[in-house]
Design goal:
The complex is a heterodimer of chains A (469) and B (172).
Chain A: E1 3-7, E2 17-23, E3 29-36, H1 42-45, H2 54-58, H3 66-81, H4 87-119, H5 130-136, H6 138-159, E4 168-169, E5 172-173, H7 179-206, H8 211-216, E6 223-228, E7 240-245, E8 250-255, E9 263-266, E10 275-278, E11 288-289, H9 292-298, H10 305-314, H11 325-344, E12 364-371, E13 374-382, E14 388-394, H12 396-399, H13 401-415, H14 423-436, H15 440-443, E15 453-458, E16 463-468
Parallel strand pairs in A: 6-11
Antiparallel strand pairs in A: 1-2, 1-15, 2-3, 4-5, 6-7, 7-8, 9-10, 12-13, 13-14, 15-16
Chain B: E1 2-8, H1 18-28, E2 40-46, H2 54-58, E3 62-74, E4 77-81, H3 101-104, H4 111-122, E5 128-134, H5 146-171
Parallel strand pairs in B: 1-2, 1-3, 3-5
Antiparallel strand pairs in B: 4-5
The chains are: A alpha+beta (469), B alpha/beta (172).
């Protein structure tokens, strides 16, 4: 009798989802599916609104990564206005986007994944949380608190508030940076850079403990996609869109605004999360990964000295394994704070000219940037009155949908033997998803709460067993 | 003395915005003369509690959290002394349950967890209370129910009064 095991909802990710593990007639794992069970639909209710409202409206998609949506949306609006925004505004937008990446990565690594990494995948789930980490390794927990707090503080200083800042606007940013705020941030950066470096050293020394996880956590050949700078450097705000395979062979390198020529989206009946794929390879073969692992795989350099040093070691790892998202995240935290420092020391950073003003001059606009979890794409069309008639968002978590499904199938096949389920096994399958750090609020534009619910269902849909924690 | 007041909840989910409403009410009253007792109050309103708030907690002489609760009888106010709450692993009250994955699975945590993290990481555990009010309605709305809206100024008064009395007691 074939069976289905359900993990519902998945814990320590952002949003509401479940995993079903389908067993074949012999009781072996046939397939695992990641279901996103929530829907809000920002694309529809944006219709009819003035285009200049989009950045602040789209930022409401998520309380974790509002800045990412703010940036991508404002870029799409820049294109609708057909303006070239002031250079200082570009730098300031870059800073807030980097702060967003740093704080989000700190949340993912220190709060959500470090319990598994420090305490072990099989440790008592009651203690496998940030409090457990604080007891076992207070310095690690303090590091997470400090790094996330600084990222949040930079966002608050620039944007006026930590969550849903409205500072990034069509045409640039609403106000210039003051010398006092610049100096305040600059003063705090060295310690953050030191913490990030120290954590990279610590985590790199732990990798040998996770040989098995590295081998089976979504470890398969495939494509990677991200923005890349004109000189092959890590890029989070602008640049060209590149896809390459795990060996580094580039299959596409196009202006980011042309992404629809190579990316299409499939819809699966089991999830509200759409599944983008690389068109030339078709669905589902055109699976690709985005996010920190993809960005560091595709970039030749970070462009900052300490992150480049860490990147040298990172390049030696097997990038096919999603487990290395964790280290990539730490390197990007280091990069983000180093790059923020570089930008703040720019001679034009206090320039008061930070916004271009114009009405709509085009009917279609694209905004593409790198969010913490990967490439974020906003595409709008407006009518002659500047009202939105079409909005399409392709979100980082969506890009990773196919890879996450394949990844949990791989892990489930490896760990589940003879119908035996243990807490540690279920946690590992969840941990595969956590490596991708999905943000389901963004990907379906919804919010939710999670506990863990595991169901065993036979081929006829009858629930044979259920465990809730 | 420096006090920290943290109101939290989703102000787009009806009564869940109670904590934020009280925090905003207290902020409005900060012009009130608390200086005679050398009291400063830092007011924070948040959709969720996150560990970075520990930094604020470590510098406070007292902390007050305000939230709407599904665990408290509708319209009733419950004041819980968090110093007497020692990290229950499986509390029936989900607001105080630090051990279950449901409270630490994501980016947010609860008042007890924050106080415990402050104690564990920075050896600071100032006196703390949770003001939890029973909510009537968590459905999508920017407005509190009539009953909870009426409670906002009363709870703000009560909190300010508690801070003032505590400060006078400490001073004596």
């Amino acid at each position: 009798m074939s069976k289905i095991i359900t993990i519902d909802p998945v814990t320590r990710i952002e949003g509401h989802s479940k995993i079903t593990i389908h067993l074949d007639e012999q009781g072996e794992v046939e397939e695992a599916l990641f279901h996103v069970t929530q829907l809000r639909g920002f694309e529809k209710f944006a219709e009819g609104r003035p285009f200049h409202e989009m950045p602040s409206l789209m930022a409401r998609i998520c309380g974790i990564c509002p800045v990412s949506h703010l940036v991508a949306s404002a870029k799409a609006c820049d294109m609708l206005m057909s303006v070239r925004i002031p250079p200082t505004a570009v730098k300031l937008r870059r800073i807030i986007n980097l702060a967003q990446i740093a704080q989000s990565h700190a949340l993912s690594f220190f709060y959500l994944s470090s319990p598994d990494l420090l305490l072990g995948m099989d440790s008592d789930p009651v203690k496998r949380n940030i409090v457990g980490v604080a007891r076992e390794n207070p310095e690690l927990a303090r590091s997470g608190v400090q790094l996330r707090a600084l990222g949040q503080e930079i966002i608050e200083i620039l944007g006026g508030k930590k969550i849903h800042p409205g500072w990034v606007v069509p045409g640039g940013v609403s106000h210039a940076l003051t010398a006092e705020n610049r100096d305040h941030i600059l003063k705090k950066l060295p310690e953050a850079i030191e913490i990030a470096e120290r954590t990279i050293v610590w985590f790199s020394s732990q990798l040998q403990k996770f040989t098995e996880e590295i081998a089976v956590f979504a470890n398969f050949p495939g494509l990677f996609m991200s923005l890349v700078g004109n000189n092959g450097e890590l890029e989070t705000y602008d640049g060209r869109l590149r896809l390459a395979d795990d060996q580094g062979k580039v299959v596409a390198d196009i202006p980011a605004e042309e992404y629809k020529s190579i990316v299409d989206e499939a819809i699966n009946p089991h999830s509200y999360l759409k599944s983008p794929y690389y068109k030339p390879q078709g669905y589902p073969a055109g699976l690709y990964r985005v996010g920190p692992l993809a960005r560091l795989h595709l970039a030749q350099t970070c462009g900052t000295p300490k992150a480049d040093l860490a990147m040298t070691e990172f390049k030696k790892l097997d990038h096919k394994s999603a487990f290395h998202y964790h280290l990539a995240r730490l390197i990007e935290i280091l990069y983000a704070f180093e790059m923020i420092e570089q930008l703040l020391r720019d001679s034009e950073i206090l320039d008061s000219h930070v916004r271009a003003h114009a009405a709509a001059n085009a009917h279609e606009g694209f905004g593409i940037s790198e969010a913490p979890r990967g490439t974020l794409m906003h595409h709008y069309k407006i009518d002659d009155n500047g009202l939105i008639i079409y909005a399409d968002l392709v979100i980082a978590t969506g890009h990773n949908s196919l890879a996450m499904n394949k990844g949990i199938t791989q892990a489930a096949k490896h760990y589940i033997k003879n119908h035996k389920l243990t807490e540690g096994i279920l946690n590992r399958i969840e941990a595969v998803i956590r490596t991708f750090d999905p943000c389901l609020s963004c990907s379906t534009h919804a919010v939710g709460q999670m506990a863990l619910d595991i169901q065993l269902i036979d081929a006829g849909g009858t629930v044979l067993d259920r465990v809730v924690r | 003395m420096h006090w920290l007041v943290i109101g939290f909840g989703n102000d787009l989910a009806g009564d869940d915005g109670f904590g934020i409403a009280v925090a905003e009410e207290i902020e409005k009253r900060l012009a009130l003369d608390l200086a005679e007792n050398e009291i400063t109050i830092e007011v924070i309103a948040r959709r969720i509690l996150a560990p970075e708030l520990i930094e604020n907690i470590t510098t406070a002489d007292g902390v007050i959290f305000i939230d709407a609760s599904a665990d408290v009888t509708d319209g009733k106010l419950q004041r819980i002394n968090l110093q007497q709450t020692d990290m229950p692993q499986n509390s029936a009250d989900s607001k105080l349950d630090c051990g279950s994955s449901s409270m630490l699975m994501s980016h947010h945590c609860n008042p007890v967890t924050l106080m415990q993290l402050s104690h564990t990481l920075y050896d600071r555990k100032p006196p703390a209370w949770l003001y939890a009010v029973g909510a009537f309605d968590f459905s999508l709305s920017e407005n509190l129910s009539g009953e909870l809206a009426a409670l906002v100024p009363k709870v703000a008064d009560q909190i300010i009064d508690q801070i003032r009395k505590h400060a006078i007691f400490e001073k004596a």
